[in-house]
Amino acid sequence: MQGPVEKSFDVVVIGTGPGGEGASMEATKQGKRVCAIERMPQIGGNCTHLGTIPSKSLRAAIYRLMDVNSAPLFRQLGLNLELSFRDLRRSAQSVIDQQVAMRRSFYDRNDVEVLNGDATFVSPQCVRVQHADGNVTLARAASFVIATGSRPYRPPEIDFSHPRVYDSDTILNLPETPRSMTIYGAGVIGCEYASMFRNLQVKLNLVNTRERMLEFLDEEICDALAYHMRDTGVRIRNNEQFERLETFDDHVVMHLKSGKQLRSDVLLWANGRTGNTEGLGLETIGIQPNHRGQIEVNANMQTALPHVYAVGDVIGVPALASAAYIQGRFAARHLGEGGSDNFRISDIPAGIYTSPEISSIGRTERELTEACIPYEVGHSMFKNLARAQIMGRPVGMLKILFHRETLELLGVHCFGVNASEIIHIGQAIMAQPAPHNSLLYFINTTFNYPTMAEAYRVAALNGYNRLH
Prior knowledge:
Blueprint: E1 5-14, H1 18-29, E2 34-38, H2 45-49, H3 52-70, H4 72-76, H5 85-109, E3 113-116, E4 118-123, E5 126-130, E6 136-146, E7 150-152, E8 165-167, E9 180-184, H6 188-199, E10 203-207, H7 219-231, E11 235-237, E12 242-247, E13 252-256, E14 261-264, E15 266-269, E16 273-275, E17 308-310, H8 321-335, E18 350-352, E19 358-362, H9 365-370, E20 375-381, H10 386-391, E21 396-403, E22 409-416, H11 419-430, H12 440-444, H13 455-465
Parallel strand pairs: 1-2, 1-6, 2-3, 6-17, 8-15, 9-10, 9-15, 10-11
Antiparallel strand pairs: 4-5, 5-6, 7-16, 12-13, 13-14, 18-19, 19-22, 20-21, 21-22
Helix pairs in contact: 1-8, 3-5
């Protein structure tokens, strides 16, 4: 084993998920010498290997299976495909491999040096990288970007080594499709997995610690999702708190403080996440993460040390891959003095891949009411759209919130097929300067027919008619 190797860079980025990738690529465009540090054997971070990519690939595989089994032609022929969870999960691996190869090429083409190992700050200007073979590299730089992401919160009283207890990092390793499942936590991850496993006909308990699911969303959208999930057979239990868990060889029993006992084949714990800050040596340089391991930053993504930035899940909300990427680019542009004013790091759409999916941008009815802003609502129900009828996906709606007097768009909320794609039309118009950010754009614009995008014209006319 050799002594430490010292290397100097302009920027060191810790983590190669979306936030780290955005920072690394943008910093090279600023003419900086960049090093990226990744503790996993391959680049991409949790997003590529454990979170967004594998879970959405699994969801797509489940949807394809549902499409085949629900098609009238195949049903008439008596065909019914039955695939195990492992078969469905395997389809995601090819997507992961493609993503890793593509992202690796980004680093290679942009001459970003990638160091594999665990990073620890030893001084404000130096990070120690411990490699798997025992060797050490000391990476010095003028600026640092921490993009280490997050992981599922694991309460100490729950035995996650038990073969019937999972979190969102391990659930994709299920050996087979369970008959029943309890999901504790009805946030984004809990709701997404509840939809997926219910589509596989798993008997499902969804335990919500709050009064309603996904409280940050528009209430009408939340209610629509809850109704649809219940209609498909999900048992939602609101305002419940965990007390203890019993584990057995063939099942688990969750005891709730209300006295309820939920027996199921497996448990998926999806309640909270923790920033990946342990072992980074932040205490050495005077940065103190909060009790959830998250790092506090200012509006420029700077930590308590101005030359050390933090982006992505490690800083907390909104904890979206899309947000992490733009935050990473913003930080790299800011440290490079390349002008970061044009970035829209606050106008970030939410995409939730339930079944059907949800997406939203802007303010909700609750927020507008509390702010005493006079608004009106335009609706388009998907069951009335030709394209939704053709696709056989009639569940859902598009909802536009706009100012009663100026017609300015204030919020767009969508529930249904392709919601995460449709939302970007509203996002683009909301971003225009007045008076171009108006409801009139949708009323006076021609949309292809039949399309899901046509929902904007229908919703805009519906809302406009309410004014007269």
